[in-house]
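Journal club prep — side note

Before the paper discussion, L.F. wants everyone to see what a predicted structure for a comparable chain looks like in token form. Sequence:
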Amino acid sequence: MVTGVTGAASSWFQVNGFALDPAGDIYAAGSVVTEDAPVGFCYTGALCPPFSSWPTDATGRDAFVMKVNGTDGSIEWAKELGAPGDDEAEGIAYTPAYLDLVDHTTMHPEAIWPVGYTNGLMLDMVTPIAGGADAFVARMDVADGSTSDQNGEYFIKAFGSSNDDYAMGVSPSIDLTDVPGAVQIAGATRGVVTSDSTRDPSRTDLDAMVVQVSPYLDGLVHYKDEFGTTSDDYAVSIAAGVDSHFVAGVTWGDLGGTGNAGGEDVFVERVEDDGSTSWMHQLGTSGDDDLTGMQAAPDSANALFLIGSTDGVFPHQQVSGSSVFLGRLAADDGEVRLIQQYSISGDDHAYGTALDSQGILSWVGDASGGFLKTVQAL
């Protein structure tokens, strides 16, 4: 989590996820509290409406998205997405321009896709709220953060069940059998979202869910999977491969069939194109282990990288208090190749992560103050 003041006496923001584009520019997503006049947060006033015009709740959190110039670190634009009640952006992905699926001639523009949850109707939202907290997804213009335009390229919409739903992570879908320009979303639900769900409607715990959203028809939503134990389970991150995708999250139960190590554990699974699970592994310490991000390396590297926080100790590590962990797994069979823990203050937490084309893995976090750490992962 990167935190800071926005210029108002009792305002602050936190970064929960970020994405990179081919030019090296950075798109950050998170939450902001603007209880006072948000002087200094909307860095380019022409692109940011007056905050008084947004349907925000002065006592709660709003989601935000900002673009940071990758060369000099300047803020190019920042947008607040809010509704009455708490709203939070949990993840964000970049997708390149793509060829139209119907006419095969029109090129649709590159875009960014923040995801999260909302407790109300956001500005420009094209769908009503289904009930409880709803997951949301937006397709935004990289140039200025617009969520609507006359050509229908951009949108923001809510989705989910009649109960609470949360979108936590998002990844572009690179499988050639999928819809061009689509994204896959990892999240959680307290309701029933898939037609073949075996969930008892009377249950109130969270189940993990996987959703695909296409850029057509203001974001056509397809619920691909819902799974879990009778304890809380939620998918935090998703990464696409050429012939499969990877889902990672946390569980308080036993998803991997090997038992729960204690409290909150991490799970990772590989799902093939036909929907079958190739492998699922659950790992953790005797404490609580909170996964916050995952990145898949190119196929030739056969690697998955996990990032998160724990108050326990993994084998062969020597830390105390809460620390950040970095894990590397083999993508073909899920074998754990490395788990390394990092501690700066003894109260360390990791949040969003990104892997660039040079094999550099970066993550944002909090250790009694925000930080950004990078390692040469490949």
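L.F.'s comment for the group: Residues 1-10, 36-58 have pLDDT under 50 and may be disordered. Keep this in mind when we get to the figures.
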